Amino acid sequence: MARAAFSESPLWSIRDDTVEKMELKTKLIVVSHLLFGSSFREGVAPFQDFSTLVRIRNDVTHWKMDFAEPKYLPPLVQRGIAISHPDSKSGHGDYPWPSKLSTLQGIRWAHNVACQILRALHQLVPAEKQTEFDFLIAGAEEISEQAIEKALAIPHSPIENA
Questions:
Q1: What is the 3-state secondary structure (H, E, C) of the chain?
Q2: Would 119 be classed as within a structural domain?
Q3: Is 28 a member of any domain?
Q4: Of 132 and 86, which is predicted with more confidence?
Q5: What is the pTM of this model?
């Protein structure tokens, strides 16, 4: 579809295997620039969170089973995305860092980052061709805090209401 919509793009002069071997973040920047003439800026939302999400994915996939926390974890703890064990500063009672991200808020954040990057990618598509690429954002709905609270609401049993 992209090849037909952007047949004049310089992207098509690059060998497929070259693009396939690019790191995901680089690929997103380069391919969107070559196709649309504009791209994401590193260090700016939503690409900054997307970069962190990709690093998390890579670190979890290639985890060496150590307890050393990656540098991106403390800011995620501060944002309420990851958790921290109360005794982690003393070195006692701590647990592996991937578990600190395996929270409802961590999952919500990862989902929302994916939705944000898809919507941002859609916005890079030139206006006259955006409707052709609406499939990028179909179903890319963020999960709100209220949706989490509603999903976790435990209904009262009929006995309690009597």
A1: CHHHHCCCCHHHHCCHHHHHHCCHHHHHHHHHHHHHCCCCCCCCCCHHHHHHHHHHHHHHHCCCCCCCCCCCHHHHHHCCCCCCCCCCCCCCCCCCHHHHHCCHHHHHHHHHHHHHHHHHHHHHCCHHHHHHHHHHCCCCCCCCHHHHHHHHCCCCCHHHHC
A2: yes
A3: no
A4: 132
A5: 0.85
